[in-house]
TrEMBL record, chain A:
Source superkingdom: Bacteria
Segments forming domain Aldehyde oxidase/xanthine dehydrogenase a/b hammerhead: 18-125
Species of origin: Pedobacter boryungensis
Protein name, UniProt field: Xanthine dehydrogenase family protein molybdopterin-binding subunit
SMART domains listed in its UniProt record: Ald_Xan_dh_C
Lineage per the UniProt record: Bacteria, Pseudomonadati, Bacteroidota, Sphingobacteriia, Sphingobacteriales
InterPro entries: Ald_Oxase/Xan_DH_a/b, Ald_Oxase/Xan_DH_a/b_sf, Ald_Oxase/xanthine_DH-like, AldOxase/xan_DH_MoCoBD1, AldOxase/xan_DH_MoCoBD2, AldOxase/xan_DH_Mopterin-bd_sf
TrEMBL record, chain B:
InterPro entries: 2Fe-2S-bd, 2Fe-2S-bd_dom_sf, 2Fe-2S_ferredoxin-like_sf, 2Fe-2S_ferredoxin-type, 2Fe2S_fd_BS, Aldehyde_Oxdr_Iron-Sulfur, Beta-grasp_dom_sf
Record organism: Pedobacter boryungensis
SUPFAM superfamilies: 2Fe-2S ferredoxin-like, CO dehydrogenase ISP C-domain like
Annotated CDD domains: fer2
PANTHER family, per the entry: OXIDOREDUCTASE WITH IRON-SULFUR SUBUNIT, OXIDOREDUCTASE, IRON-SULPHUR BINDING SUBUNIT-RELATED-RELATED
Residues covered by the 2Fe-2S ferredoxin-type domain: 52-128
Keywords for this protein: Iron, Metal-binding, Oxidoreductase
Protein name per its UniProtKB record: (2Fe-2S)-binding protein
Source domain of life: Bacteria
Pfam families hit by this protein: Fer2, Fer2_2
Length: 707, 206
């Protein structure tokens, strides 16, 4: 089927709209069996006994595995250490922990049999109460990052004007639409094939190799299509190891798909956060001190930290900055980076406080930001590789109609609704790693590119194809980019907005190498240097040429610069005066992330980040019942991700100017900045609409009414 | 499953048969079945009795099947007929990823037991294109980039086609409302709305 409306369409679009795209759970293996997990119903303690008699006797059941009868995983044999070693412990660390797997010949039979497993426990006291733990001196706090001081600590306290506030965020869950799981097939001679939901096929391969102490080459990881990740598929979770153990034991392929409620407990979350910001400024609006103290939720059995306080160190020009970041180990599943990760958490607090200060100074919040925009990175004392944030302020302000905004809150009323405008900035490191790409240039005019990278949705294949198409002057439909296969040349996991920069650089380098080989061949066969590669290959009787290139991790110049992508989110909200309902009316998101390689998919990514931001700002909150250590809203009916009716039309503007340092394309990542800062823009707009400052996400009607 | 430590699921068919034989007419429960229950092979006998014959059409192809009554239409499509275009997102009718047409009406196939679909005609995403020619809604989703990861897409498209046919696509706001049963976590909603709006305004009968 050849169907291209234009070259910017997704290269895998047809597969996705026809149902032909195969996600991990959709591979048909002969003799496939089904695993279903049994999970702990206590929050902390010890498993005393597991009665599997009834389950084993149920029709179609092949086995029930737990810590009592698992097969050996050599990497788990030594005592102690992190991460949690599934089936190598009788300890329960959190509610909903997988403690056994039932395998049967059909999904229904495995599900029924899992309900027959009876577990008895010895319970011990537990703590899942994040907010209470912050104030409780008896609860252990760990340093999440070294304390940072520039100039004088807590300088804001002596400033002419000061803002000192606390900002709260609940647990959020990634909840991609595709349920997590794996198909594991442990074959003869310890050859293992898995169909995984992963953001990194090489990372999955290495984890399995380490757990079972078998050579990485023995393990084939397939993950061509991934139904969303947002960070939760950046590691191999214990449940995946459980399925592999079951396959090893039974010598049959085992498919395990977890349930939506299990997506809340065993595949990570964005940690709850409690942040204090102290901000000091002169009366004419110059920031003199920033103090950012953050607490994040972590787990007792594994630790998790992220970049919550990073942005406060360099986004605004202040002589005095100090930050502290602590994590609190709780009896809950361990968190993992969720889109925008800690930076999105930090940006909500900092950008709310910036808005509060602008209001205290009676300044337009855009003017206040512009006035404190640093010429260079004040934390590293070096220039930014590129930064067009003031231009972005102007473009976005014009598009949203910022001049309609009144600095006095509650000034605009339409019927029962109050209207307000808000703005916030997002920033994320423009990282670039090392990757290898193989290019196969064929005499039939086609180019095949291969790399063990992933596409969880941003359009990796599309972006890479466009980079190659431009460099090689080959139409996109004659280029195939293969990914999601651990046997391909290695690439890092898809995370931290680095794939386009990292793998794109390797695509660039391999294309340059192929072109130079073609030029040599042309010269050797007395052809014109500009000859088409098809003619050159034919003249030389070559069906194809191949090159594999490992890209360098950086431009050598990079160490002299700070490299970041920036976003500026503008929103107009309306707040209902009687019900407190907040609706986002208009969104303008401006991306300052270098050259845009793939305009259509890049725009979609910005749109998607804004939608995620609406969820973070207004609806998303995983609520824990601290008496039992369980989530009470662990489903899509009660945990509210944004739906179509929550989302207005979204305008996306790109600065689209190449960064001269980061990589040959001049393109910086943008998956994170699409979301970072968005929630702050909404909170600031709600204040502008109503005069009510909501410092606790999500901004639900009850909070608006009570404020 | 969440209550395994204290649930009553040990109350099996075996217990039920015994109780029913004690408290109701013995003649209703043949001796062989009771014996089987005692020998714990009742589940295996039951398996033979408990499959239900099912005739249905999927994408215009007729199937004659025997299914357990607890099998959902979604799991029948995915696990038995290997039509994996229809996706499982929540299994609770809360996300719309499993949307198919049953006799032309959009339905969450995870909330429909396969056995309830006797004689019905199911259309899945695999049955929407005419050979190599994409359905206009599929083409519009590509044009407007109405997806990212693609996992909710088959459900979105099946729902979108029904939304237009129902006459619920007369404005962008109406589309937003009538497409709110289909969650897209990548956040492609504005693009999805644009795609549906264009197909509707195109005026073709779809």
């Amino acid at each position: 089927m050849e169907f291209f409306i234009d070259e910017n369409d997704r290269v895998d679009g047809i597969e996705k709209v026809t149902g032909k795209a195969k996600y991990f759970a959709e591979y048909q293996l002969p003799g496939l069996t089904y695993g279903v997990l049994v999970t702990s119903t206590i929050t902390k303690g010890k498993i005393i006994a597991i009665d599997t008699k009834a389950a084993k006797n149920a029709p179609g059941v092949l086995d029930v595995l737990s810590h009592l009868n698992k097969p050996s995983a050599a990497g788990y044999e030594q005592a102690g250490g992190s991460p949690m070693k599934i089936f190598y412990t009788d300890q329960v660390f959190f509610n909903g922990q997988p403690i056994a797997i039932v395998v049967a010949d059909t999904f229904e039979r495995a599900t029924y049999a899992a309900s027959l497993v009876k577990v008895s426990y010895e319970k011990t006291a537990f703590n899942t109460d994040f907010e209470a733990s912050i104030k409780d001196a008896a609860v252990k706090k760990l340093q999440g990052a070294p304390p940072y001081v520039r100039g004088i600590a807590d300088a804001y306290k002596t400033a002419e004007v000061k803002v000192e506030q606390t900002y709260k965020m609940p647990v959020e869950t990634h909840n991609p639409m595709e349920l997590h799981g794996i198909i594991a097939d442990w074959g003869v001679n310890d050859k293992v094939t898995v169909y995984a939901k992963t953001q990194g096929v090489k990372s999955t391969q290495n984890t399995i190799a380490n757990v079972f102490k078998i050579p990485a080459e023995n393990i084939q990881v397939n993950s061509q299509f991934v139904g969303g990740g947002f960070g939760m598929a950046l590691r191999t979770w214990p449940l995946e190891i459980a399925a592999i153990m079951a396959s090893k034991q039974l010598k049959k392929p085992v498919k395990l798909i977890i349930t939506r409620d299990q997506m809340f407990t065993m595949v990570g979350n964005r940690p709850a956060a409690y942040q204090k910001i102290g901000l000091g400024a002169t009366k004419d609006g110059k920031i003199t001190g920033i103090t950012h103290t953050a607490f994040g939720q972590s787990a007792t059995y594994e630790n998790f930290t992220e970049g919550v306080v990073n942005m406060s160190k360099f986004m605004y020009d202040s002589e005095n900055v100090n930050t502290n970041y602590y994590v609190i180990p709780l009896d809950m599943g361990v968190p993992i980076w969720m889109r925008g990760p800690g930076e999105a958490t930090g940006a909500f607090a900092l950008e709310s406080a910036i808005d509060e200060m602008a209001f205290a100074l009676d300044m337009d919040p855009l003017d206040f930001r512009a006035k404190n925009d640093p010429e260079q990175d004040p934390s590293q004392k070096r220039p930014f590789s590129s930064k067009y944030i003031k231009e972005a302020y102007k473009l976005g302000a014009a598009k949203i109609g910022w001049n309609n905004r009144k600095n006095k809150p509650g000034s605009i009323v339409e019927g029962s609704w109050q209207i307000g405008y808000g703005v916030s900035v997002g920033v994320f490191n423009a990282g670039r790693g090392r990757a290898s790409v193989k290019g196969i240039l064929k005499a039939d005019g086609t180019l095949v590119l291969q790399s063990a990278t992933s596409d969880i949705g941003p359009g990796t294949g599309t972006g890479m194809t466009l980079i190659a198409s431009k460099l090689m002057n080959i139409p996109v439909y004659k280029i195939v980019f293969e990914l999601g296969d651990s046997s391909l040349p290695p690439a890092p996991s898809q995370g931290g907005s680095a794939t386009l920069s990292t793998v794109g650089s390797a695509v660039n380098d391999v294309c340059v190498a192929l072109k130079s080989t073609i030029a040599e061949l042309a010269a050797n066969s007395n052809m014109d240097a500009t000859s088409n590669f098809v003619d050159v290959l034919k003249k030389n009787n070559l069906p194809m040429i191949e090159k594999t290139i490992q890209s360098s991790q950086n431009n050598p110049e990079a160490k002299n610069y700070s490299m970041y992508s920036f976003s500026i989110h503008f929103v107009q909200v309306k707040v209902h005066q009687l019900t407190g309902v907040v609706k986002v009316n208009k969104i303008v998101s401006v991306g300052d992330s270098g050259k845009i390689v793939s305009p259509k998919t890049a725009r979609s990514q910005m749109v998607g980040g804004a939608v995620g931001g609406i969820g973070m700002a207004l609806t998303e909150e995983a609520i824990l019942d601290n008496r039992y250590g369980r989530y009470v809203n662990n489903n899509f009916a009660d945990y509210h991700v944004p739906v179509n009716a929550d989302v207005p039309d979204i305008d996306v503007i790109f600065i689209d100017k190449p960064d001269p340092i980061v990589n040959p394309m001049g393109a910086k990542g943008m998956g994170e900045i699409a979301l970072i800062g968005f929630a702050g823009a909404v909170a600031n707009a709600v204040f502008n609409a109503t005069g009510k400052r909501i410092r606790s996400l999500p901004i639900t009607p009850d909070k608006v009414l009570e404020a | 499953m969440a209550e395994i430590d204290k649930n009553q699921s040990g109350d099996t068919r075996r217990d039920f048969l015994k109780k029913s034989s004690l408290f109701t007419a013995l003649s209703l429960t043949p001796l062989t079945v009771l014996k089987a229950a005692d020998q714990k092979v009742d589940e295996r006998f039951a398996e033979l009795f408990e499959k239900i014959p099912l005739n249905l059409k999927v994408n215009n192809k007729a199937y004659t099947l025997k299914v357990e009554p607890r099998v959902t239409l979604l799991d029948l499509l995915r696990e038995q007929l290997h039509l994996t275009g229809t996706k499982k997102g929540c299994d609770h009718g809360q996300c719309g990823a499993c949307t198919v047409h049953v006799d032309g009406v959009r339905v969450n196939s995870c909330l429909s037991l396969a056995a309830m679909n006797e004689g019905k005609s199911i259309t899945t995403i695999e049955g929407l294109a005419k050979g190599d020619e994409l359905h206009p809604m599929q083409a519009a989703f590509i044009k407007h980039d109405g997806f990212q990861c693609g996992y909710c897409t088959p459900g979105q498209i099946m729902s979108a086609v029904a939304c237009v046919r129902e006459g619920h696509a007369n404005s962008k706001d109406e589309i937003r409302e009538y497409m709110s049963g289909n969650i897209c976590r990548c956040g492609a909603y504005p693009n999805i709305v644009d795609a549906i709006h264009e197909v509707k305004e195109g005026g073709k009968v779809i």
